[in-house]
Structure formats: C-alpha cells, structure tokens
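The following record pairs a protein chain with its ligand, 2-phosphoglycolic acid.
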Amino acid sequence: MRRPIVAGNWKMNGLSASIAELDLVMKGYVPALAARVDLLICPPFTLIEEFAAAAAGSKVMIGAQDCHPKPSGAHTGDISAEMLADSGAEAVIVGHSERRADHGESDDLVRAKTEAAFRAGLIAVVCVGETLGEREGGQALSVVARQLKGSVPDGADAERLIIAYEPVWAIGTGKTPTASDVAEIHGGIRRELSARFGEQAGQAFRILYGGSVKAENAKTLLQTPDVDGALVGGASLKASDFLGIASAYAGI
Ligand code: PGA
C-alpha cells in the first residue's frame, strides 16, 4: 500500500552536461520498474529548472536539496520553496545531516522549512539520523525520535511528507547498519508517527533509509519491515548505479 521511492541526492555535484545522466535514468525507467518504484532526483539548484523541463512527461520527479522557510525577502543567496516550485521542483529534502552540521540547522528551522515546502505544494523529505557517538551511547532511537518530533510539523500527511532515516556515520563512508538495526529505527519512527498522527495515517508515511546504499546492499537494507525506499547520495550520480539500486530493490 505504501509505494516505494528511490531518491537521489546529488549534493554539490553536477554541471549542465549532467543532464545526460538524467536522460539515461529516464530511458532506464522502464515500465516494469515504474510499476514498482517512484524515482526522485534532487540535483543542485542550478540544474532544477533544466532537469524539471527535461523530465516533464516522464515519471521521474525532480526535487531540491534545501529551501528557506520564508516565501521571499532579504535573504541573500537563499532560495524559497515557492521558487523551487516555480522552477518545476516537486519535492525538497530538508534537514539533511550535512546541513544540520555545516549550517547549524536546528529541528525548529527544519520544521519551518518543512512547513514552507507544504505551503509551496512540495513534498518534503525530512532527514533524521544519529551520529556514531550517539549510536555507541545507545541513544540512536531517542535522538531520531527527538529530531522527528521537532522537525515534523503538525498537520503533516503522507501525501506531502517523507521521512529519511540517515545515520550520520553511514553517509558516504561505505558503512551501513545491519538490517535489524534499520528495522528497529524504522519501526520506532513508524510508532512515533502513528502515536502523533493516528494509526492509519502513521502507516501511510514512507520512511526511506539513506547512507551508503548501493546496488549490492539495496536488497538487504531495503527489504526490511517499514523501509519504503532509499535516499541515495554518491551512488545516485551515475544513472546505471541509481537504476541498479532501484532495480535490485524492486527485485527486477
Ligand atoms: P551516500 O549519501 O549514499 O553517499 O552515503 C546519502 C545521503 O547523504 O543522502
């Protein structure tokens, strides 16, 4: 009942020539794959308009990696959710751990950005995840629950909100949690969402795993209870790797 989604976070990578990779993703998104899994690609701001135009008519969605909470104003260098929607984006990642760490983003700010995404009609992909120290200290679940509570606004629903669990220590490191660790955290996220939004609504939210997902580990990591897809960084930059993950996950 929850439709799986594999999302690519290109981070600060990609120039105009990278549209060739998007073309390859669209070509490889064959009906058998499209029947089983949604695809979302989040390139840097500079490529959103071009990618969205190229992807129009295909089923590949284009999204952004961040937005400002306000719709417009004196915020030099920032981009609003309304601007993203105007450029053709359908989704935006908020609260990625790199933004939380590099830009000191708090849960309150992430919640405001999520509200901005909803206001602009975008799907928000809200990221949560513990550091290595927090995991080793046995706090993984409590940290994730706290981030979730603070980052998800009231009134969120499964149409507009996707959660991505990304353990910070697994991002770009090649290290991954065990499938049972993933199941434990995803189960905890589902319980929190169900407690807050009601059992039926809680069951409908898609919860993605992110952190060193590759075609080789996609099946083990993602075919776990309460995992509804992946948020992929490094392996989303090449169409063949990205499609390999989606195909392995979909079992085709
Ligand atoms: P990675 O990044 O797949 O390169 O580990 C995931 C992410 O940061 O979203």
